[in-house]
Specification:
Layout: H1 4-31, H2 40-50, H3 54-64, H4 72-84, H5 88-99, H6 106-123, H7 126-137, H8 143-157, H9 160-174, H10 179-195, H11 199-209, H12 218-229, H13 233-246, H14 251-264, H15 268-281, H16 286-295, H17 302-314, H18 316-321, H19 324-328, H20 332-348, E1 352-354, E2 360-361, E3 377-379, H21 385-393
Antiparallel strand pairs: 1-2, 1-3
The chain binds zinc ion (ZN).
Length: about 400
């Protein structure tokens, strides 16, 4: 199947043939010599293309057309076209061919190195891409783009210390704040240290994270987890409550932990009181509490059960399937069945969605894997019936 790049190559061969013919005609007038025959090389190249042997055609083109000031833009255009089409090996071949030119100007060399680095990145050859981006980040007009790409590579490789260094350089050179992004890099280090039970290092990384602006509460979540691990119940609860106060949506992460702490101490009565006073101050959190309880199958705490019941009675989609009013009049076991069914549905549908690009996932991802934004995911506050219905239709 001929591709866009095959047509471009064919076009280039035809252009070269036409140029050769025109030169021949021009020469005839000046020197009174017969016109040059159509160069056999062009025909060879075209023949490769007609037989859909794009690689041979490309090699032929590269041998025929020396990289010089007049043709370099064509080489770059062809290279980026191949990369865009996912034909990365060919893009690499073209950019390497440019770099091999001995008398290449420094600026063109940087452009070719930058293009080659992007080819490697697209091909998933992160080590090679990293080497070139590091070189370009040390002094070229691609410094800022190179550092941005390096951050992306270190994020993929989970090399957080290097990501911090590149991010800090990028802040200086790019003239924009990356406080939130760098804070998350520190949080990644903090979580890794906490997982290895090196709580001292973890606390220090959280401290570093908290200097970033805008502030992330992820550090506070990590500290709360550490407090829980080290049986410092008071600190853990204080932090979880602060997290909910500052970012209501994080109740989806904090509530199951809070319930676990109170349950562990056999003090669910106290939790009931604490939640009641919180919901009195913030009644709009009712739905989030209910949804979090449904998803995590939390029950047996009067105020939470109340939230869940209200949620089910208010759910318009549910009302289309079940006579919710008759249930509200006292059929407790039917309500419990619906609750269980909702919990099962919620566990198979996405719970979080990126506000930037719409990417959704089951668990909270601090960095969106699709658009690379940090802290843009928010929990759903309702069971996604439309998703469930779509699943059952397809
Ligand atoms: Zn996104």
């Amino acid at each position: 199947m001929p591709t866009e790049s095959t047509f471009l190559l064919a076009g280039l061969f035809l252009l070269l043939a036409a140029a050769g013919w025109a030169l021949g005609r021009f020469g005839e007038r000046e020197d009174e010599e017969p016109p040059a025959p159509l160069n056999i090389d062009y025909l060879k190249g075209l023949n490769f293309l007609l037989n859909e042997q794009t690689d041979q055609a490309l090699e032929h083109f590269l041998k025929m057309v020396r990289v010089d000031d007049k043709t370099i833009e064509t080489h770059f255009a062809l290279g980026s076209l191949f990369r865009r089409r996912g034909e990365v090996d060919r893009a690499i071949r073209i950019h390497q061919n440019i770099i091999a030119r001995p008398d290449l100007a420094a600026e063109q060399r940087d452009q070719a190195l930058f293009s080659l680095a992007k080819d490697y990145l697209k091909a998933g050859l992160l080590d090679r891409a990293e080497k070139l981006f590091v070189r370009l980040s040390q002094g070229s007009r691609y410094q800022v783009e190179a550092l941005d790409n390096l951050c992306g590579i270190y994020e993929q490789e989970k090399e957080w210390q290097k990501a911090i260094e590149s991010g800090q350089q990028l802040e200086v050179l790019g003239g924009r704040s990356l406080g939130l992004q760098i804070a998350h890099y520190y949080c990644e280090l903090a979580e890794a240290s906490a997982a290895a039970k090196d709580y001292g290092a973890a606390r220090q990384y959280v401290k570093n994270a908290q200097t970033g602006r805008p502030r992330t509460l992820r550090g506070a979540l990590t500290r709360a987890h550490i407090a829980q691990e080290t049986h410092d119940r008071k600190t853990a609860l204080r932090l979880y409550h602060r997290i909910i106060d500052e970012h209501n949506y994080l109740i989806s992460e904090a509530l199951p932990e809070i319930v676990a702490i109170y349950a562990n101490e056999n003090q669910l009565g106290d939790l009931d009181k604490a939640l009641k006073s919180m919901l009195k101050k913030n009644p709009e959190m009712n739905t989030l509490v209910a949804y979090t309880a449904i998803v995590n199958d939390i029950g047996g705490i009067p105020i939470i059960d109340e939230c869940v019941e209200k949620y089910m009675l208010d759910e318009p989609t549910l009302g289309e399937f079940v006579d919710m009013q008759s249930l509200a009049d006292g059929d407790v076991s039917a309500l419990a069945k619906i609750r269980k069914a909702l919990s099962n549905l919620a566990s198979t549908t996405p719970r979080y969605q990126c506000q930037e690009c719409g990417f959704s996932s089951q668990r909270l991802l601090w960095q969106c894997p699709s658009c690379r934004s940090w802290e843009t995911q928010r929990p759903a506050s309702r069971v996604q019936f439309d998703t469930v219905l779509q699943h059952s239709i397809t």
